[in-house]
Every structure is written in C-alpha cells, then in structure tokens.
Design a protein that fits this description.
- This protein is α+β, with helices and mostly antiparallel strands.
- It is 19% helix and 48% strand.
- It contains two helices and seven strands, in the order ααβββββββ.
- 13% of the residues are buried.
C-alpha cells in the first residue's frame, strides 16, 4: 500500500469520533484487497431510502434520507484518489462501493 493510502487509513481509523459517527448516522468499513478498495456502509432499508454515492475529486459522499423524519444524512470520506466508474452494489442493507486500484 502506498504512503498516501496508509496515511488515510491511519487518520480514518484512529479518529476518536469515528465510532460515534458510525453509531449516530450509518456505519462505514473500508477494506483493502489486491485489486480494489471496498467501502461498505450499513444502510438499513427499513430506516433509509434514496441512497446516493457521489464521487468528487478526492471525496466520496454517501447520503441517504431517513424514512422517519425525511432528514438527509451523509458521510464524507476523503480519499487519496478515486477512479471511476465505481462499482456499487446495494442489497440486504449493505452498500458496497468498489474502487479499482
């Protein structure tokens, strides 16, 4: 893994607010494989709808609208480099975003 990604992983997972945000909005996990980075978000279908994934430069924004109050919740991830097109799979409350290396 190059130093840019290593630095991003450290800041993402050593941030003390990460676990708080995971519980208050929706949980996000990041996995590193040989061919891609995989971002998984737990977006429960009975709580959220209108899920959007928006890549812009070095940011990835995941947003969803709460069914209970109509409020839009989003998580923004700062990534070193996003290659498009992204492969997105959303089933059984799990949103998977594949970013090819």
């Amino acid at each position: 893994m190059n130093m840019e990604w290593q630095s991003w992983f450290e800041s993402m997972f050593l941030d003390p607010l990460t676990s708080f945000l995971d519980e208050s909005i929706f949980r996000i996990d990041v996995f590193d494989t040989e061919s891609a980075f995989i971002i998984e978000a737990l977006i429960e279908e009975d709580r959220y709808h209108h899920v959007q994934v928006i890549p812009t430069g070095d940011e990835l924004i995941i947003s969803a609208v709460a069914k209970s109050d109509g409020a839009t919740y989003s998580r923004k991830l700062m990534l070193p480099h996003i290659t498009t097109p992204l492969r997105i799979v959303h089933q059984h409350s799990i949103l998977e975003i594949f970013i090819d290396k």
